[in-house]
């Protein structure tokens, strides 16, 4: 966990409940995946899918989830920038989290389309990303996907803005609703 955003505090602001299926697109180190799994621990119907293109990171998430007895965590090697690249079924997910990922992908709009494909009607898209560049810690200035751009791209693929959430001093957070 870094000092710029706190996954547990962010997850606590979300309307996540027992029995939901949640996908963490670009799961990376798994901080958000594991925070969600901890919140839903003990609920056998809940599923948290950590989707990433880096197999080594997925292996670490899988190991940590097993060590913490978080049986709801499932790792998926996939490319969120490709249609059906997440390997999740259409209309199967209640919420998709894209945290600190949009600035890293080459085609952010394609990742948002993939989120829309897997989300159930009225499902939530949760975007957390850097609000600006912070030297060697965050993305380079040319790679920042601002909140305005993230919302605009989301709306272009069929999401509607629902609300902002507090994602820390150097990040923004917003919840978009699948239409």
How would you summarize what this structure contains?
The protein is of the alpha/beta class and 179 residues long.
% residues in beta strands: 25-35%
CATH topology-level fold name: Rossmann fold
Q: Could you give the count of β-strands?
A: 7
What would CATH call the class? Alpha Beta
Structural class: alpha/beta
Helix content: 25-40%
> For the residues shown, what is the average pLDDT?
94
Count the domains: 1
Strand order of the largest sheet: 3-2-1-4-5-7-6
* SSE string: HEHEHEEHEHEE
What distinguishing features does this structure have?
179 residues; Rossmann fold; seven-stranded mixed beta sheet
Care to describe what's here?
With 179 residues, the chain is α/β, with parallel strands linked by helices. It has one domain (7-178): Rossmann fold (3-Layer(aba) Sandwich), CATH 3.40.50. 27% of the residues lie in helices and 28% in strands. The chain has 5 helices and 7 strands; from the N terminus they run αβαβαββαβαββ. It has helices at residues 7-12, 31-39, 55-67, 108-118, 147-156; strands at residues 21-25, 47-52, 73-77, 93-99, 119-130, 159-165, 171-178. It has a 7-stranded mixed beta sheet, with helices on both faces. The radius of gyration is 15 Å and the shape is globular. The relative contact order is 0.17.
């Amino acid at each position: 966990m870094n000092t710029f955003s706190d996954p547990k505090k962010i997850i606590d602001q979300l309307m996540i409940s027992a029995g939901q299926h949640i996908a963490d697109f670009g799961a990376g180190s798994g901080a958000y995946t594991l925070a969600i799994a901890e919140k839903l621990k003990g609920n056998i119907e809940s599923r948290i899918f950590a989707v990433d293109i880096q197999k080594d990171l997925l292996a670490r998430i899988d190991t940590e989830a097993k060590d913490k007895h978080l049986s709801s965590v499932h790792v998926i090697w996939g490319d969120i920038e490709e249609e059906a690249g997440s390997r999740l079924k259409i209309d199967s997910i209640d919420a998709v989290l894209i945290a600190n990922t949009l600035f890293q992908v080459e085609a952010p709009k394609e990742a948002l389309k993939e989120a829309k494909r897997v989300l159930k009607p009225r499902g939530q898209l949760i975007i957390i990303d850097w609000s600006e560049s912070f030297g060697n810690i965050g993305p380079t200035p040319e790679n920042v996907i601002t909140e305005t751009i993230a919302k605009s791209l989301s709306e272009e693929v069929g999401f509607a803005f629902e609300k902002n959430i507090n994602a820390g001093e150097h990040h923004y957070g917003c919840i978009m609703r699948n239409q």
